[in-house]
Each structure stands twice: as C-alpha cells, then as structure tokens.
Specification:
The protein is built from 16 helices and 11 strands. By secondary structure, it is α+β, with helices and mostly antiparallel strands. It folds into 3 domains: 103 residues, no CATH class; 103 residues, no CATH class; 201 residues, Orthogonal Bundle (hpI Integrase, Chain A), CATH 1.10.443. The termini are far apart. The N terminus is likely disordered.
C-alpha cells in the first residue's frame, strides 16, 4: 500500500466499485487525497458521467495495449481529467496558499464543465430574457458584447457574433483586468455612465457565479467599501436621468393651462401623477390596472417592475390616494374600469405582436410591451420639453417627477429611511446616493447668504 503524503494533494482516476448502473458498470471518478482525507469527483465524457466495467477499466489502464474508437476517446478523457485535476491543484495552491477542497472544486469543476466567465454571462443573459426583463436584458447584452470584444470576439456588421472572445475563469476577472477593460472602453469612446453600467453587469454575473461557488468570494475583484484600495471601484457617471424642480417651479408647472385632450395635456398630467404617486416610474404607471386601486381604503397598491424579478420577496408599494390623483384619473384615465383594465391608455389590452426581429423570429409580448412603454416615454418627454420651454421652465423628463418628489421630502426634513421606503429602494445606500445630488442647491443657498453680505468683489 502506498504511503499517503501529508499536506500534499494528489489526484488519481479510480473505478468506484461500490455502486453500479443498470448495465452493471461502475462510475469512474477522480480521487483527490489531501492530509489523509479523500474526496471523489465524477469523470465525464461529452457531458455524461463515465461508467465502465472492471474488464474495460483494466484494458484502459494497460497503456501498452492500443485501443481505437470509443475506447481511445474514453482513455483520452480520463487522461484529460487527470491533467485538469493537476492544474486545479496548482491554481488552488498558487501564491503559497494552503490547499483546500473548496478551492480545488472551484478550479476543477469550472474547467471540467467549461463554465468560464463568458459562458456564465451568456447563461445569465438567457435567464434574464426568459424572465421577461427586457430592459435589463438589453443593458446586459450590450455589456456582454463589449466585454466579449475586449476578449477578442469578432462581430459582423449586423452585430451577430462570428467568433467568441477568449474564455476566462471567474478567478481571472481581476482588478487589473477590469482596469484594462475600462481603458479599452474609453478608447472606444464610452463615457463614465456607460462604463459604470457595464462594470455593474460584470459584477452581477460574478455574484451569480459566487452564489453557486462560494469559494469565488476569495477572489472578489470589486470594491465593497471605499477603503478597498486593492479592488476595482466602479465609478459613477456624471450623467443624470433627471434633476429636481424647486417648489416654485413645480407650482408654475401645475398652473400651466393646457387644452384638454391634447398630447401636451396628457403628458403634463402623467408627469404630475408620477409625482403625486411617490415618484412612480413610468413603466409602473403604464402597467397600473384598476384592480391596483382600492377606493374604499383610498390606496394604490402595486409591485415595482424594477424590483419584482430581482427581489427574493415581492414588496408591494402603497400610495395614499389624494384628490389630485383622483382628478388625474378622471381626466385622462381609461373609462373602462374593469379590474383588469389599464388605468391609462398606454398598453393595448390583449397585447399581441407580429413584429419581427432581424433574425425573423417574432418578438415576445414582453419585448413588445417594453418597446411601447419606451416609445410613450419618448413622446411624453418631447411634449414636456416643448411645454416647459414655452413657459420658461427647465426641460424636464418623466424621471424629474421622481427626483422632485425625493428632493422635496429631503427639504421637508424627512428621514432617509422613510424616503427609502417611499421610493421603494431595497438598499438605503441607493437612497443616500440618490439624495446626494440635491445637496448642491442647499450649498449654493448657504454660499449666497454669506457672499451677498460681503462688500468685496
């Protein structure tokens, strides 16, 4: 019997004779021995666990005996598994790290199943698309294409992938590589906002991989806090979806007289509806149905589209109904008040689609719905801009309603925790970052008070 070396991990393919399949064959496994402990991992051929009889195993072990066809392929698969195991042990113990089975499994199983980072990214894209999260899918698809090109992928003029980029292990996604990708994106003309979106997409995919393989957290490349100097910090872009109106500007907007029934009238009231409904996102306004409105208890209850597919537990939003909300629904709401009818005439009832993609595959209802909402937002923003410019107001967009609501809450002295709840943020840090942009107004007011009293140039 061979003496087991302590503190040295050794791999060895073996025939596991303690179980068998319906054909009476035994599974072939990779035995890893370390510090007198042994773990076993199945060896696969073409994605299926390998089973052999004792005679087949003995024949393959005799390297002097030549084999052909499937037997040759099986022998090569076993040899490749041994090579992968040796490589995984080497990576698991690189930089003088002690061997652990967790590190080995992360390295070995990633190699064996070919689950590189790009493959994980593609799988996540498919999962997001199947969940109907079309907006998120498009953003992640752009991030994947950019990173794939960074890894050497080739695309045709229509944007179809010709050759994939060079695959990499999740552990290869180091802070250094992320900085190189950032530099690559800058050369392509991408701004901070775009780079930030792409980096957050990479972070999400890495988090998904780490949830399946907790040992990956040891190689986590993204900064968790500001003091993480050795990790990559995702930079926030300078671009903003919208600013906030002052109370005076808000009153002026509400007082503008617009002819009922016109696109400008509808656009103005939809903006005010968003403001009165605690900064409700336009997609949620479009999807709002009369069953979400409880007139008896005077409350609107809905689940934010932005979080309903990402939160483990759906957290419904509740909006108290005031007279302004009632008046807007009366003015531009759908007269058909059946529970499943949309409150506003934006999304057609019984939505069906025969719209074709470039690949000639019909678009899903979710994709069509996303297009309808985006087109409506574009139209509303255009009308709002015209309305505001003719009344000496900032050129607002639909997102300004949410920012204005948050800004006024902050000016009223409400707590960040309450604002977080009213806005529907799952993480208070999101709310804090959200509110920081409104501080400049107060700083300017404070500076003006001081400087105006000074008799200096």
């Amino acid at each position: 019997m061979k003496k087991v070396k302590s503190k040295v991990a050794t791999p060895e393919p073996i025939l596991w004779q303690w179980s068998e399949n319906n054909e009476g064959k035994h599974p072939v496994k990779m035995r890893i021995t370390f510090d007198r402990k042994r773990n076993y991992y199945p060896i696969q051929v073409e994605g299926k666990n390998l089973f052999l009889s004792e005679s087949e195993w003995e024949e393959l072990q005799d390297l002097k005996q030549k084999v052909r066809g499937d037997k040759k392929k099986t022998r090569e698969a076993i040899a490749e598994a041994l090579t992968l195991a040796l490589s995984a042990i080497e990576k698991a113990t690189s930089n003088n790290r002690p061997f652990t089975f967790e590190r080995f499994e992360m390295e070995f199983l990633t190699q064996e199943t070919k689950k590189g980072f790009l493959a994980l990214f593609r799988k996540h894209l498919k999962d997001v698309q199947n969940e109907g999260r079309i907006g998120t899918y498009k953003a992640y698809k752009n991030a994947y294409s950019a990173f794939n090109k960074f890894r050497g992928a080739k695309y045709d003029k229509k944007g179809n992938e010709i050759n994939p980029g060079k695959e990499l292990s999740p552990t290869d996604l180091t802070p250094s590589m992320l900085k190189d990708f950032e530099a690559y994106m800058k050369k392509q003309g991408a701004g901070k906002t775009t780079i930030g979106i792409y980096m957050r997409s990479l972070k999400v995919v890495f988090n998904v991989a780490a949830s399946d393989n907790p040992s990956l957290n040891e190689f986590y490349p993204f900064a968790i806090k500001q003091t993480d100097k050795a990790r990559y910090k995702i930079k926030t872009g300078s671009g903003k979806k919208g600013d906030a109106l002052t109370p005076e500007q808000l009153e002026k907007l509400a007082a503008i007289e617009v002819e009922p029934g016109t696109p400008e009238h509808e656009s103005k009231l939809l903006w005010l509806f968003s403001f009165y409904c605690q900064g409700m996102n336009f997609k949620d306004i479009a999807g709002l149905k009369y069953r979400n409105i409880d007139l008896q208890n005077q409350v609107i209850t809905y689940v934010r589209a932005k979080t309903q597919d990402t939160e483990a537990e759906e957290k419904p939003m509740q909006v108290p109904i005031n007279e302004a909300i009632k008046n807007i629904i009366t003015a531009i709401g759908n007269p058909d008040k059946k529970p499943d009818s949309f409150v506003f005439d934006i999304i057609p009832m019984g939505l069906t689609s025969t719209v074709m993609r470039r690949t000639n595959a019909p678009k899903t209802n979710q994709e069509r719905l996303d297009e309808i909402v985006r087109q409506k937002i574009k139209m509303v923003n255009k009308r709002l801009k015209q309305l505001c410019e003719s009344n000496e107001l900032p050129a607002i967009t639909t997102y300004w309603a949410r920012h204005t609501y948050a800004s006024l809450l902050k000016q009223a002295g409400e707590s960040v925790e309450l604002i977080r709840e009213l806005l529907g943020h799952s993480d208070i840090r999101t709310t804090e970052a959200y509110l920081n942009r409104f501080d400049i107004g107060r700083k300017k007011e404070a500076n003006d008070k001081i400087f105006s009293s000074l008799k200096i140039a």
